[in-house]
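Chapter review: from sequence to fold.
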Amino acid sequence: MALATGIGSMPGTDFAESMRIVLGEVGGLPYVPELPARGVHAGMIGRTLALLEGLEADLQPDGWRVGVGEGTDVRRARSLLLHDLDVAEELTQGYQGPIKIQVTGPLTLAAAVERAKGDKMLADHGARREISQSLAEGLRTHVSAVGRRFDQADVVVQIDEPAITAVLTGGIPTASGWSRHRSVHPPEADQLLRNVVDAITEAGGRPVVHSCAPDVPVELLAGAGFTAISFDLSLARPDDVWAETFEKGVDLWFGVVPSTDVSGTTEKALAERIDTFFSRFGFDEETYADRLVVTPTCGLAGASPQWARHALALAHAVSGRH
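The token string follows.
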């Protein structure tokens, strides 16, 4: 039977209410949401920096920076994360099944965070390796701790890589804005991702990856060891690589529900888009139904509270058609 879930972010600032909506709407794959409206410390970057081992972060006027000492914002991020997990643990008492958490991936993190002397960590090979290893060590601790909190659940860890295509193709601007950082070649990208995948697996979690970028590097992500790829179906070209990846055992999570308010969206039309994608490769519903997860196209932070609830319910309804 197919499942449904959300990507991660939700609108508003009331975590307990967002968690109740998630539990009430998505069915068999709930997640611990992110509420970036509470401030930068609650966004995907700040939340992930709170997990790093051996690297201290602080918020500077031009954004997050590592190697300058632990700041109040990262401490705030850590405190909020622990609070959210406390609330989620309380609201999921007795739950059995998978539960998902989200973390920014090493490539996107390197493209978003600056070194102590300025410019992105992406600019330096050693810095990229350092942030990947720091994240991996932090995830070993974090995933184990989450597993103890939800001791009857299976922990799914979604690695968010929205910038991965830009990182691989040299599309990230430098601090001056006049040029672009050099592309990260696939063998290095594979190792940076593999560090994180291995840490999640060793801590007892299931590693999946999400990217709402165009031209998702399917082969790279599958090769790094992710067990599922979550993507925006409207941006995906139906190349054979998707079929080959699916046949190798990597599940596909289809982002089909609009992440912002759109009228006239029906579950029947969305279900047909998924079926059409699979039918191109000769897969019938019996082949993919048990390995399918339906999601919004991206996070729901920019949606109205009404649409966020409806989007999750719609994803669940679409999954129920398979």
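Two observations follow directly from the output. The beta strands are 3-4, 57-60, 63-66, 97-104, 153-160, 206-211, 228-232, 251-257, 292-296. The chain is about 45% helix and 15% strand.
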